[in-house]
Amino acid sequence: MTAAQRLAWFALKQEIEDFLYMEADLLDQREFRQWLDLLAEDLVYFMPIRRNVKFGQQAEKENTRQGEGISWFDEDKWTLGKRVEQILTGVHYAEEPLSRVTHMVSNVRLLEVSPSVEEPAEVVAGCRFLVYQNRVEYESNTFVGRRKDRLRRHGNSWLIARREMILEQNVLLAKNLSILF
Amino acid sequence: MTTNLPIDQMIDQMIDPGRGMISREIFVSSDFHREELEKLFTRAWLFVGHESQIRNPGDFFVSRMGEESVILCRDTQGKVHVFLNSCRHRGMKVCRYESGNTSLFVCPYHSWSYTTDGRLQGVPLYRVLYEGQLDRSQWSLIEVPKLHQYKGTVWASWDPDAPDFMTYLGDAVDHLDQVLDCRDGRPGGSEVIGLHKWVLPANWKFAAENFLGDTYHNPSHRSVDMIGIGPSARAGQSGRRDNEYAKGQHVWVSFPQGHGMHSVWMPEVFQYQPSYLQYPVVDEYFRHCFEERKRRLGDKARLLPFTGNLFPNTSYHGRQPRGLCVWHPHGPTQTEAWRFFLVDADAPAEVKDVLRRFYMRYSGPAGMTEQDDMENWLYATAASSGTIARRYPFNYQQSMGAYKRNDPLPGDVSTQMTEQSARNYYDVYARYLKGADWDTLIGRNNSVRQAAE
Ligand code: FES
Ligand SMILES: [Fe+2]
């Protein structure tokens, strides 16, 4: 990498981090409709179910697969729009009253940049998430895992084209996944 | 049969379906929880898994009965077994993978190994340390004495004296068939396409009771009904499902074994209601299945399923969505839910894809419909745990007496929303806690049943 390329790389990484933090903040501020605007029309939103498998079979069997069978989430923008619409009815009791949520995003890395660092049209960013949810009085959940986001340049911002969330749980230890990740 | 009068009297006081009152204690107390594990889950037939999860010799699927882990396994000869997942030596959980294929279960602790038919085969240093003492044939994995395979589903009971599964199921079989049979009426033919497992801080009976015919809780799903998440929602239809049963008579049916169902009895002449509107191929497939089913089943095709619960803790959704859900007790105020999603194994890929997407947005912890159920079950459990709260029973007086026996279907049939199925369920539940004999538990002993009414 030339020095100029390195600079471009850092600038891009910073820009992507800022985008992810801004996006997390929209969710935490409950700006759900604005958050939806950050999703590409062809979004894939995927959270597999993790299974306990024999050593050596992790790659093949540990996670359910996108596009087949049952996962926690394997959906598109329309469905996420419905989730938002549901929360906004005010009678979706699993989110009424609204949960208090904080999304922590860290370990951000650029995994793929195309076509070039100088003219990035699409970026795959990896990160870790720690999402804390507190509900009503005593209910709290901590969702921790890895995320991979495919982001697409959109004007001077980005659209999320694909989000893959690997939650570090087998049996889900929360009663609901009623929040957005 | 053990009788202990004071305990029996206490149970009768707390569980009084005749007056439509049930104590909150049974939903929150650790005493009742322990009694359930001892007297109910050791006897009743429980759902363990599906043959599609163990297709080949050596395939296993780790399941659960009550609070205990079990291994559902097809041995190398092809026979199906259910074993307690605990080593006979020091109790180590023999298998901690969720599923797979093996010829031997090797215990991680001291390496005793068991064949797929449960026999203890390998004992390290057997000659030196155990010869003449340990009779390996006596130390097989503990196996359920009763196992039954029905249209792909596998059921088991820990009670060697339990009646056979079909007797236990009784006339509820007609309703269960609507879940397990192909959409075109061919018997069986379903497969499991995926599994949800999650824990919820609620007593398991809230969930079981919800499925056995609590149609009254519909208002809690208002949000999904308003926005529309059904298979025709993209075509602009509101509601959380298609309206497949237009003109049908809703029926709430309960059975002496404790099962309860909400189904629909269609008129003599009934038509396919267009469904899956934005997927013409899927709509066409279901239309074809519908006509085929009518042709195949004749008058029996008039019965269509909504939800139900097989006593004690196996619930189902019959069509939209379609699956079995087992509500495992996990402490007095916790439940571990396992949902098995079903499709016809030979349905076209496009149909399966539309179904699985609908299932995911409807059911379970990420399901837009069921999330609201979970919220209710959690806070109903929590708000019933207090000392004062426990003094006041729940009310089960909805539609008291408003049912007919065996008309127009077998069972106690109500044509209006009712808590009769719940009253019946807790009546049977009480009989288990009192250690009743099997004739009483499955309603053969009519005097008990009538006395309870
Ligand atoms: S506990 Fe299994 S071999 Fe000792
Ligand atoms: Fe419900």
Automatic annotation (TrEMBL), chain A:
Keyword match Oxidoreductase: yes
Q: Name one GO biological process term.
A: 3-phenylpropionate catabolic process
Q: GO molecular function terms here?
A: dioxygenase activity
Could you list this entry's UniProt keywords, alphabetically sorted: Dioxygenase, Oxidoreductase
Q: Does the keyword Oxidoreductase apply?
A: yes
What is any Pfam family matched here? Answer: Ring_hydroxyl_B
Membership in a protein family? Belongs to the bacterial ring-hydroxylating dioxygenase beta subunit family.
Q: What is this protein called?
A: 3-phenylpropionate dioxygenase
According to its UniProt entry, this protein's organism is Rhodopila globiformis
